[in-house]
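yo

u said u wanted the structure for the complex thing, so here. seqs first:
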Amino acid sequence: MLKVATVNVNGIRAAYRRGMAAWLEQTDPEILLMQEVRATDEVLRDHLGGDWHIAHAEPVIEGSKGRAGVAIASRRPIKLETVDPGPERFAGCGRWVEAEIVLDDGNTLSAISTYVFTGEFETPPRQAEKYAFLDAITNRLTALRADGRHVLMCGDLNIAHREVDLKAWKANRKKSGFLPEERAWLDSLFESGWVDLGRRFGGEGPGPYSWWSWRGKAFDNDAGWRIDYQIASPQLAASATDCVIHRAPTYAERWSDHAPVVATYEI
Amino acid sequence: MLKVATVNVNGIRAAYRRGMAAWLEQTDPEILLMQEVRATDEVLRDHLGGDWHIAHAEPVIEGSKGRAGVAIASRRPIKLETVDPGPERFAGCGRWVEAEIVLDDGNTLSAISTYVFTGEFETPPRQAEKYAFLDAITNRLTALRADGRHVLMCGDLNIAHREVDLKAWKANRKKSGFLPEERAWLDSLFESGWVDLGRRFGGEGPGPYSWWSWRGKAFDNDAGWRIDYQIASPQLAASATDCVIHRAPTYAERWSDHAPVVATYEI
DNA sequence: CTTGGTAGG
DNA sequence: CCTATCAAG
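structre next:
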C-alpha cells in the first residue's frame, strides 16, 4: 500500500507556522510532493525533520529567491533525482522535480512534483511560457512512460479541466487557468491513457476543489478551483483505491491557499 | 490643565493592530505627538478617527515611502503648521513638524514633534546628517523662543543624555546615541534654559527608559535607553506638574518598541 | 526582531 | 489577501 500526498504549501515556513505539521503527522504519507516551497534546501529540510529522503528543485535563476520551488519527500530511498522537464529554457526554474523510487514489488516509480506557470499576468506575458511548459511536460511524460515503469505526476497545474472543476466557470471562460487550449491539453493527456485520480474518485462534481483565493469569502463560499492533480500512468492508476482532497474544516484551520490531494495505491 | 503625550509609534498601523487605541482612550491627552508614523496622511487620519486636528510631516523625498513621518494630533485647533526645521537639506524629510495652538490663557504654544536621524549606520554615513539636524534644531528653537511664546519640543532624539539614561552605558560610550558630542548638544540645550521634563520628574535614575530593542530580552531585562523627550521652554516647564513614561506591563502588551512620555502642564 | 514597500501569485 | 525578500531601525 502506497499513500501519496501532494500539496502546494505556498511557503513551507508559513505552512508550518499555521499547522502543516499536525496534518502531516495525521496523514502520514509514504511520499509527500510539494509545490511553492519558497525556501532554501536547508530551510526545507529543517522544517520536514529527519526520516525523509528529499528531492528538491530550488529555483536558481536570477531574482527567483523565495519563489516557486518543488520537492518530493519520500520515506523510501530516492534512486535518482532529476530536475527540470527538459528544455534549456526551463533550466533552474524550480517547477519540476522527479524522483525514482523502488516499490515493494520491485518496480520503479517515477514520482514527479510540478508547479506549472500561472498564465494570468500581462506584463511580462506569461501565457506563452505556460504553453511551452505544458509541451515540455508532454514530451517528458512520453519519454518516462516508454520503458513501462510507473509514473505519477503530482502538482499544481494551474488548469481546471472541466466546468465541474471550478465554481465560477462561466466567469472564467476567458481567464488563464480555464482557457480552451489549456483544457484541451488535459483532454489529450487523459485520452492518451493518463488518469486523473481526483476526478476518478471525486464523483461527478461540481467540485471538489483544491484551491481557493485567500481574498474575500472565496473559501467560505467554496468558490474554488480544482487545479491540483495526481495523474497516474494506466497500470498505476488501476491500482488506486482512493483519492481525496483534504479541505480544511474552517478558514482559520487552513495552512495554505491550496488543499492536499491524497491518494492510495495498492501496489 | 494640558496633558501632552509623545510616542514613537513605529508604524501607526502596527501600533493600532497591537492595541494603541486602548492606551490612547485611557490616557486621553489633549495633544498627541507621534514619530515614525510610517503611513500616508490618509492612513494616519483613518487610524486616529475624528475629533482631532492633525499636523503631519509625511516624508516626500524619493524612496522614503513608509519611513519616518512625524505628526501632531490636537483636540484644539491648529493655527499654523510648519514642516521641516529650516535648512533646505531637510526639506520633506518627515522628521519635524510644528503646530501653533492657542492655549486657554490666550498664549500661543508651539508644539513640535521631531524624529532625529539614527546615526548608527555606516553606509551611507549618517552621523554627519544627525549633527546637521541637531544644528538645525538649535537654530529653529532659538528663533521660536524669541517672541516669548511657549515652546514644547517632543520626540525621539536618538540620544541618551547621561549615564543614568541607558542601562548599558559602558558598552555604548562609542556608539551613536551616546557619543560625547551628542550628549554635549543636550547639555548646551539644557544650559540655555530648556527643561528635560522626563528627568525632572523621573528621579535620579538609572532609568526610567523609553526605548528597548525588540531583539532578545532587552525589554524583560529593562535594558533600555531614554531617548524620547518632552523639552519645554522655561515658563512652560515651570507649569509642569508631572511627566511619566508609560512602560508596558509585559512584552506582549507593547505596541511599539518605544513607550509614550506623558506630561501635564497647569497652563 | 520588527517595520513597511514591493513583486509575485 | 497572502507569500517572501529587502532596506531600515
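Residues 10-11, 13-14, 36, 38-39, 65-67, 213-216, 218, 257 of chain A lie near DNA strand D (CB under 10 Å from a C1'). Chain A has one domain: 2-265.
cya
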